[in-house]
Amino acid sequence: MTNPTIYILGAGNIGKYVAHALATHVPSVPVTLIFRKRDSFKKFIDSGRKLTRWIDDKTQDSKSGFGAEYIGQSYKLNRAMPISNLIVATKGQQTLDPVGILAPRLGRNSTVLLLQNGLGVHEELNSQIVAFRSPANRPSYWAGICSAGISGRGGTNNPFCPFTFQMAGEGSLKIGPLSENEEIDQSHLLCQSLVESSPTLQTKVLDHRRIKLAQIRKLAMNAVINPLTVVHKCPNGALRHLESRRALPGEPVTALAAEFRPSYMVAEIGPVVRAALNLPSGDPKLDKAWSDEALLRDVLRLADATAENRSSMLQDIEGDRHTEIDYITGWIIRKARELGLKCPRGSQKLYHYIKFRKWQNGEVL
Ligand code: KPL
């Protein structure tokens, strides 16, 4: 049986943004938000199951109310419907547990769109969720990359406007299948609904090869920007100054100054992403697009375009939460090892610093 509802796990900025766009542009498709915290679930119900978009100092309430489900303690699986379409908008490190709870409602006819930073989440779901160990039971995974600038006006912890989000800049949503063999069916409910929401989302449907390129490009950007903003405790825009800063006469060139700058990180990460992509050799266009120069240019452009932002990783560190380091820098390190490449030393140091909140030699974060 196909369930016509689109479920969204994670009511953070991206989850709210996509839910609001679906409700605005495809009101005939029911959308249900799934909550893991009772508190947020209750607040959502009490506030009338509405989401508010804040743009150019004007607010726009979602036209229709949303469905809401709570999957924390006392969750009754036996009364729950199977899920045909699930958008996962949680952070990588917050995905395994809730998807594990939902796994009995997901199966080979379900589509799961992972809308998050980093790589490696779907492999983790397949290896850690018992029901998904058999390829025959696995959902079809899609990846989504959202480049819109969205900030919460407080997030779900804000007692005044937990379900409001603010648009800081337009952007696109690229989606595509993670399996090489999957044909794109534009009439599939999830795909079609996201495309119909294009006036807001600007959805582009890519084939497997192109979504993989887009994912790895975004990962390379995040693997440079996010850990560097943590180590320097700075907004994204400061990375350009850091890049051009030279040691003053007589100033000792510390590891921080020499290594932890965008060009150094790109020089380490570039070879790993190029090898992971296994690009056909001798294609001058591809060689140029994936050169260290092009990656560095894109990193600095993204840092400039999001200059005021504190990266999601820096915000997680400041809020004393787990970070996405395992799916970003961790992925680079694992890939380098798997491909027999030189160990990316700077990335390894940053990984340890961010994962364990201290340097390998003991200094505390
Ligand atoms: O994706 C981001 C993040 O913070 O995770 C960027 C694009 C770097 C914006 O801050």
TrEMBL record:
InterPro entries recorded: 6-PGluconate_DH-like_C_sf, 6PGD_dom2, ApbA, Ketopantoate_reductase, KPA_reductase, KPR_N, NAD(P)-bd_dom_sf
Domain of life: Eukaryota
Domain Ketopantoate reductase N-terminal: 6-179
Gene3D superfamilies noted in UniProt: N-(1-d-carboxylethyl)-l-norvaline Dehydrogenase, domain 2, NAD(P)-binding Rossmann-like Domain
NCBIfam families: apbA_panE
EC nos: 1.1.1.169
Family note: Belongs to the ketopantoate reductase family.
One Gene Ontology biological process: pantothenate biosynthetic process
Gene Ontology cellular component list: mitochondrion
Signal sequence residues: none
Keywords of the record: NADP, Oxidoreductase
Protein name (record): 2-dehydropantoate 2-reductase
An example Gene Ontology molecular-function term: 2-dehydropantoate 2-reductase activity
Catalytic EC class: oxidoreductase
UniProt domain Ketopantoate reductase C-terminal: residue ranges: 211-345
Pfam families (UniProt xref): ApbA, ApbA_C
